Every structure is written in C-alpha cells, then in structure tokens.
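Shift notes (night). Ran 3-oxoacyl-ACP synthase while the centrifuge was going.
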Amino acid sequence: MDFTDPTLGTPPVSLVDVASYLPGEPVGTEYFTQFSRSDRMAKNVMFRAPKGRHHVARDETAVDMIERATAPLIDRHGTQEISNIDVLLTHTQLPDNPVLGAGPEVARRLDMKPRWVFDIHNGGCAAFVHMMWMARMILRTTDARTALVACAQNCAGPVFTQPDIRGLAQAPVPGDGCGVGLLVKNNSAPILDIECRTYPEFAGDMEFSTNGDRKYWEPGEGQGCVTFTESKVAKVMTRGNRLVPEVAQAVCQRIGVKSRDIDTFVSNQPNRLFLRNWNEALELPPERHPDTFDSCGNLFAAGIPVTLDTENRAGRLRNGSVVLMAAFAHAGDFAGAAAVRWGAAR
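Came back to this:
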C-alpha cells in the first residue's frame, strides 16, 4: 500500500513491539447476574455485558501488572534493552497510591534509570495513543533512543465487585488487563502519524460518586464508582460515534490512505455498538477491526495494546501492513489516533 509520510525530515520513531498481561482466571457473567437488580439502565446498549473478563487480585498492584506485561519484551529484546529505556510513560486507571505515580516503582522493578518518567492520567481509554505521541515527541527532540509506554487497567475487580456496585447494569462490562509498547528511534516499524485532540467542554460530564455527599477520601458509608444518567449515556454515545472516526480519518488523510483500505483497525472497546458503528463509519469489514471484548470486556486504556498483542501473537498482523489505532476517553474530553507501518516481533 502506498502512503505519504507527513513527518519526512524528522527522526523516525517505531512501535517495535507490544506485549500484554491478563490477571487471574476468566470471570463469567454469571458472577454478576446473581447480584443484578431491576434497573432500566440494564436495557441500554452501552452496558451489554461481554461473555467474560478478568479481575485483578486484591493485592495485585498496577506495578505488578506492568512488570508482568513487560516480561515478554525482556524475553524478546533482552534485559539490557529494557533496563536502558530512556523514556518511561505509565497510565493507571486506579492508582494504588493516590499520591504517587507508578513510574518510579516500575523503573525500580525493571532495573531502569530513565531520564524521563511521566505518569499520564488524562488520556483515559486513548492513553496508549496519547503516550505514543508524547514518547515520539521526546525521542525526536532529544538524544533519547527508546521508550516504554504502559497502560494498566485495574479498576474492574476492586471497584465493580463492591457489594453496592456489582448489581448495577455497568458492573459486568469492565475487565482488568495491562498492555505495553516498546518504541525505538529507528525506521523498522515507523509511526506514520498521530492525532490527539482535547475537548475541555466535555470534561465535566463524567462523575465519580459515593452515591452521597461524602468525598471519596472521607470516612463514612457509600462505595465509589463512576456514575451515569441516561441523558449522559446518550451524549457519550453520540460523541464516541463521532470522535473516533474523526481522529482516525484525520490520520488517514495525512498519510494518504482511505480508511477503507487500512489493513487493521484497533480501537478501544466500550461495547459492541461502538465497535459496529466505527466499522461502518470507516467502511471497514468487521474482520479488519479485531477486538477482545467478548473475552476481556472493556479494558479502557489497555484495550488497544492488549488487542494488538493478541493479534500479533496469532500472526494476524502482517509485517509491512498499516495498522490504525483510535480511541476516545471518558465522556469525550479526549480522543486520539495513530497509524503504524507494522513490523513488530512476536
């Protein structure tokens, strides 16, 4: 496939490999149905449950997950390549410590001494693309050579199995998992283009509530969870249907490829309806838009790297093909897309 590289003249940066980790044994939907309650929201397509998902153990930390997800990269590229990482970016859905980020502890566990360490929160379900954009910018403008980006989704087990939460319509949808990507300043699997957009007008539409006046850090009754109203769910559906194709098409236009000619499209996976609608908007058949929703549920930021790793290990990503990634975050306050000329190891 012919394409135009809009970044000609700048140092090429490649996504040379991905790896992932899923905690524990699969958790069936029957775990949630025993607690389900009569709820109008259960009929909303936003909350149609997958067949399975994974949950982190109570004492399994985000750093544990990142360390386990990175192990295959160490096997394939060697301990020295990972320990010499220059840039470390992490995203954790549910920070283990609200004061500290995961980055420094990840670096200690993996025997790294990176010069740039950032814990990124606002990218949400698009964090993998967001961190690729940030890592590429650092690699291009400094003498840094390598970057590790890591997305840990770890809120499904701790949050959505709470006694007051597990009966809600949205409880069976999320799953836990972790995905990582290795970026290197070379031309082996070049990132062709990245688009990141922030929509601050939507930032207030997602709320974290204890179902009362209590702040989440204050003592008292009430269990914390992201809250939805039917009107807000409708708005999120409308935005998500629009934002992901918009950023994906922006990248396709700049690299000179029609969206229908993309070899593989990987997105975040909030529900089956979004996945179908994005197929149609980009004029792609479902087989070119793989996902892990039925086995993993909504993996939030980890959805893209976990699916990429699953497809790569299965041999379904052909080296030299164009892989397009796109996602939106939260209630639509952020969206991002990236295209890569695939060439990852497996």
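The chain has two domains: 14-188, 192-342. The mean pLDDT is 92.
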